[in-house]
Amino acid sequence: MRKLHAVLLLGAACVVSACTTTSDGFNSSNSSPDAALESYTSLGLQYLRAGNTASAKGPLLRALEIDDGYAPAFNALALVFQAEDDLSIAESYFRKAVAADPQSAMIHNNFGAFLFAQQRFDEACQELARATEDPFYQARAQAFENMGRCYRKIGRLDVAEHAFNRALTLSRQRPIAMVELADILLEKGDQAGAAVLFDQFREYVDSKQIDHFPLSLWVGVRVARYEKQSGRAATYALLLKNMFPESAEYQLYKESAQ
């Protein structure tokens, strides 16, 4: 939860079926093609989560030898090459994954997060919006949160506000969405609504589930000012200065204090 960048959801992970292992970690001789596909892909993702990207590629390529249009393997390879910072290769595999399974919310979310990280916000917003369309997607709240952050980047506050509200409707455990939505409400002059959301966010900080970040501290300063809590506002301002002196939020604070 402490990672503030768009989260790459490894939704293609599958349970590894009971098989004897070989040098590549799996023997498909006694398994159906579908089971082998899932197991090889799951094994590749396990290597990726362990940070072993070199070993992750072999099982994923084996999956594609069985089915050269298997979208989860394309998606997993895209994540592997993204982790290795081979961005052009990663993008090619994301596009193969989308082409192979255009209805996959998980793939659209991962590709959207990839594009967001490259600051290709217009493209990212389209992919993330597609990820929110599946009402059965388990990470739909995360997708709405990502979508809201993306639309803020291109100045579509109306769409962003809707996305953050949807994220919080689907899951109240979205502290990033709370802060982002509170910031939008402050911009709209709804200080009371922003204060409610920020108080909910503070509970996550107090329970050490998330740390403050530049936007949360800047929101905290303005909420504290609204509540006439000058000491609290000063505390947030000092944290912002000491922890994030180069942030855009600190620049906004300095301008507001003049």
Report on this model:
This protein has 258 residues and is mainly α. It is built from 13 helices and no strands. The longest helix has 17 residues, at 33-49. It starts with 32 loop residues before the first helix and ends with a helix. Residues 1-26 have low confidence and may be disordered.
Considering the chains and any ligands shown, give keywords for the structure.
258 residues, mainly alpha, 68% helix, elongated, disordered N terminus, signal, TPR-like_helical_dom_sf
Q: Proportion of β residues?
A: under 5%
In the predicted model, the low-confidence regions spanning at least 5 consecutive residues are: 1-26
User: How far is the first residue's CA from the last residue's CA?
Assistant: 35 Å
The tally of helices reads 13
Class by SSE composition:
mainly alpha
Q: Number of DSSP strands?
A: 0
| Arithmetic mean pLDDT | 89
TPR repeats: 71-104, 141-174
Protein name: Type IV pilus biogenesis/stability protein PilW
Signal peptide: 1-18
Keywords: Repeat, Signal, TPR repeat
Topology:
Elements: H1 33-49, H2 53-66, H3 71-83, H4 87-100, H5 105-117, H6 121-131, H7 140-153, H8 157-170, H9 175-187, H10 191-206, H11 214-226, H12 230-243, H13 248-257
Outline of the structure:
This is Type IV pilus biogenesis/stability protein PilW. With 258 residues, the protein is mainly α.
